[in-house]
UniProtKB/TrEMBL annotation:
Pfam families: BPD_transp_1 (PF00528)
Top-rank taxon, per record: Bacteria
Localization (cell): Cell membrane
PANTHER family tied to this protein: ABC TRANSPORTER PERMEASE PROTEIN MG189-RELATED, ABC TRANSPORTER PERMEASE PROTEIN MG189-RELATED-RELATED
This protein's name: Carbohydrate ABC transporter permease
Family listed: Belongs to the binding-protein-dependent transport system permease family.
Stored InterPro entries: MetI-like (IPR000515), MetI-like_sf (IPR035906)
Domain named ABC transmembrane type-1: residues: 78-267
UniProt membrane topology term: Multi-pass membrane protein
Organism field: Actinomadura violacea
């Protein structure tokens, strides 16, 4: 009998690295390289960013961050992005939950055809529906407001599909027991179904936040005044017609991506739990 079997306090042996790690490691380096290069440019001088071949900065120019915050209302743009992203996250969690539950559990005339039509919108590029969406936003009087960025993204076809697929995996016996106790459809949804799908809801919230926070094309079309710009659109002001201050632009980009990094690391376990739950189902 080995020492690890006799003594439960004995340290566990380390697992040997899988050959798959030899493939994943270069891929990880390729993914991290642009982020590292962005950070290096943000602490370089303007002359070092134009140097060829490129190299490491000779010193750390922390004033690029303070200059980026001073030369542009970066804090105001970050606040606009936070308002838009959080509003879209809340809207997707509420409306996609209602629509997904209806498609999964309620049978009505044309439900399958309507669900197929919703899925079909996933295959339509945004560039095609961009102009009709702008026309509807203008007709609603939301042009050049934060509402123009929030209302079209309050519900997405992907969110409806994701939550509908999860609802389909939940046994109907749970709902039948709740209905015997006199619970309504909405009470079953909010008190029985949604507590079971917290990892899925967290996954949808993170994906919606990332997509809305990093969106550039739609704010570029729907917003014109600087006070309504999001941070991704506001960073364009650091680029001139003939020259670009790359250190300040990269410093502003690093600042704009800090909430994304924090959210990803905090919510990473929800991604894993959501995948594991889907596998168990």
């Amino acid at each position: 009998m080995s020492m690890s079997t006799m003594n439960p306090q004995a340290p566990r042996r380390f697992r040997r690295p899988s050959p798959l790690h030899l493939i994943l490691l270069p891929i990880a380096l390729v993914m991290v390289a642009p982020l590292l290069w962005m950070v290096l440019l943000s602490i370089s001088t303007e002359a070092e960013t134009r140097r060829f071949p490129p190299g490491l900065p000779s010193g750390i120019e922390w004033h690029n961050y303070t200059d980026a915050l001073r030369d542009a209302p970066l804090g105001h743009w970050l606040g606009n992005s936070a308002i838009v992203s959080v509003s879209c996250v809340i809207g997707n969690l509420v409306f996609c939950s209602l629509a997904g539950y209806a498609f999964a559990r309620i049978r009505f005339l044309g439900s399958r055809a309507l669900f197929v039509a919703v899925l079909a919108t996933l295959m339509v590029p945004f560039q095609i529906v961009m102009l009709p969406t702008l026309i509807m936003v203008r007709a609603a009087g939301l042009t050049d407001t934060l509402g123009a960025l929030i209302v079209p993204n309050l519900a997405t076809a992907f969110g409806i599909f994701l939550l509908r697929q999860f609802f389909m995996t939940v046994p109907q016996e749970l709902e039948e027991a709740a209905r015997i106790d006199g619970a309504s459809r909405l009470r079953i949804l909010f008190q029985v179904m949604l507590p079971l799908m917290r990892p899925t809801l967290a996954t949808l919230a993170v994906l919606t936040f990332l997509q809305t926070w990093n969106d550039f094309l739609w704010p570029l079309i729907a917003v014109q005044s600087p006070e309504h710009m999001t941070v991704q659109l506001g960073l364009q002001t650091f680029q001139g017609a003939h020259t670009t201050n790359w250190p300040r632009l990269m410093a502003g980009t690093v600042i704009s991506q800090l909430p994304v990094f924090v959210l990803f690391f905090v919510a990473q376990r929800f991604f894993v739990r959501s995948v594991a739950t889907a596998g168990l189902k």
